[in-house]
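pinning this so it doesn't scroll away 📌
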Amino acid sequence: MESVVIGNPDDIYLDALGIRPAIRAEEIRLEGTGRSVAIARSRYFPTLSISGGAGTNYYSNFGSTGFWGQLRNNFSEYVGVSLSIPIFSKFAIRNQVRTAKLNQLNQEVQLRRVKQNLYKEIQQAWNAAVAARAKWEASQAAAASAQDSFTLVQARYENGKANITEFNESRNQLLKTRSDAVQATYEYLFQSRLVNFYRGGELTL
């Protein structure tokens, strides 16, 4: 079986940053706090409002002027402009800005924390995969050595130079090393797939 542990923790981490949903969610929240700061700061600036309207009316006893004439004669329109300058509310606005900045700072800390946890998980998974690889290689060597030993003992037993106890011990050792090799294989496959999972791969054996 060829090695499937690819790259190093730093490379895997950089790949994971762009695809892990938890990281993107925290980045979006940080973007939201940045917009909140901008909105809070905008309240320092004067606000100019423009309004307008038009209307007319009709009275049933308005003399001899007809309905359409009254509507035409009573028609009126207006345009209004107002300027609001935040003079007495600056302290309240300042507190709103400070609160928005504090929320932004907290979100930056949260994003760093999530990234640090991700790197820690990747480092642990990569170390486990490397250890599993070494264990797998050792189990393969042990199984091969046990096979050679059993072949020799079996030949000696068939020629009457080894007793049944030696034969059974050698056979049991072979079975154990084979079982250990199978277990090490699945462990290595799982750990390596877990590493690849952080790079966008599927978590399957």
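📌 and the second one:
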Amino acid sequence: MAFYQLINTQKLPVSPNEIWNFISSPENLKEITPQKMGFIITSKTPIERMYPGMIISYKITPLLGIKLNWMTEITQVKELEYFVDEQRVGPYAMWHHQHKIEPIKGGVLMTDIVTYMPPFGFLGAIANSLFIKGQLEAIFDFRKIALEKRFGVYKE
């Protein structure tokens, strides 16, 4: 079984507090997820700020209009620095996503590290090379644009 890792970085002209307040609220995920993904939070409990042990459930439509349930657990949080979400139910055999922020001159550096394993063994490895990796990269490309629209473009 193959594991893959996708690493994305983005600089934004905001304070750590400002970006933390945005990314630590699950409700904001919809704003930075492509509409074609059909992303809907289905959790029944109010979702304001993430905390370790928080379970968040969603419906997504990643491929061919097929709706899937996805449940993640926020396993680690260090305020203003990082949080980690891990899939508990969903389309991957394994999903671990680190969201890190660090202050830099004039803003913050955001780093996303996604470690994942597609389902179905060697068929999943083929699917990863054919479309999964590209789809994940497209989601993060969308996210970069959405965050720049909301917070502005970082100038070095």
